[in-house]
Design a protein that fits this description.
This protein has about 260 residues and is α/β, with parallel strands linked by helices. Helices cover about 35% and strands about 15% of the residues. α3 packs parallel to α4 (about 100-110).
Length: about 260
């Protein structure tokens, strides 16, 4: 089964270039990557160039300046150049008479929508109304809905609201490596470097969304400051070791390719 990293970054102005990501992928048997544009960057030329240089290997999720009235037209041009998705925040609204213009443009172009924000952003009723307004859109919640850290009672309420968005069949969720929500043991121990018990967030996401709406993402290169690329992949795999081959094929590859197809 192909392994797909659904959330990683490459840039010539921040983080690491595409070659560093490809090296990690090659060393760890990852077949494809979904490049997610870094926050604040609306120049997508580097990612478009990566598509040209590595055809069939990666997909590009872009960011546009949604405050501009011509943002939907910009997105259409980027889609024509090979983009498979757009990155939006849950509270993103377009200027003019249609506040959901950029969301509708993405849906009509067949682009996946990768959403980054806080747990409060995802739990806000306004985001649910966006989802309800766009049943044809494929909307992906990044970073486990930002409930990825050890949580208190208030955080648990937020988690329930975020995971409750699974009631909409067009909503998906990205799952990370364990380093995003587990505490590192001090000193680091072998072979398992985290404090136990492991918060059951991945299993809870599985119960809420099911494998057909889950996708693993490394968060490279920030993951290098946590457990590292290999452990981010293998740690998540271990958490789903008891699931069927079909389920794991979806979580670690097929779902991401469905939402963000690799364009040759």
């Amino acid at each position: 089964m192909p392994i797909v990293d659904s959330h990683c970054h490459a840039s010539d102005v921040w983080y690491e270039p595409i070659e560093s990501l490809l090296s990690q992928m090659d060393r760890n048997g990852v077949d494809h990557a979904i490049l997610i544009q870094i926050n604040g960057q609306t120049n997508n030329a580097y990612q478009t160039d990566c598509l040209r240089r590595y055809p069939g290997r990666i997909a590009s999720v872009v960011i546009v300046d949604t405050d501009r009235s011509d943002a939907p037209d910009q997105l259409a041009r980027l889609a024509e150049a090979g983009a498979s998705g757009i990155r939006l925040k849950p509270g993103t609204r377009s200027p003019g008479s249609d506040p959901l213009a950029i969301w509708r443009a993405a849906a009509s172009l067949g682009l996946g929508i990768s959403c980054g924000g806080s747990a409060s952003d995802f739990a806000d009723g306004g985001f649910a109304r966006v989802i309800e307004s766009l049943p044809e859109a494929r909307i992906v919640i990044e970073h486990l809905g930002s409930v990825s850290h050890p949580i208190d009672a208030a955080g648990e309420t937020l988690r329930q609201k975020v995971f409750g968005l699974s009631r909409y069949p067009n909503v998906y969720i990205k799952i990370p490596g364990l380093g995003e929500f587990c505490r590192r043991a001090m000193p680091v121990k072998e072979p398992f470097p985290f404090e136990e018990p492991i918060p059951p967030l991945l299993e809870q996401a599985y119960e809420a969304f099911g494998p057909a709406r889950m996708m693993w993402g490394s968060d490279y290169p920030p993951v290098s400051g946590r457990e590292g690329y290999r452990r981010a992949l293998n740690g998540a795999r271990e958490q789903f070791a008891s699931k069927s081959d079909a389920d794991r094929a979806q979580i670690f590859g097929a779902t991401a390719l469905k939402v963000f197809p690799i364009r040759s």
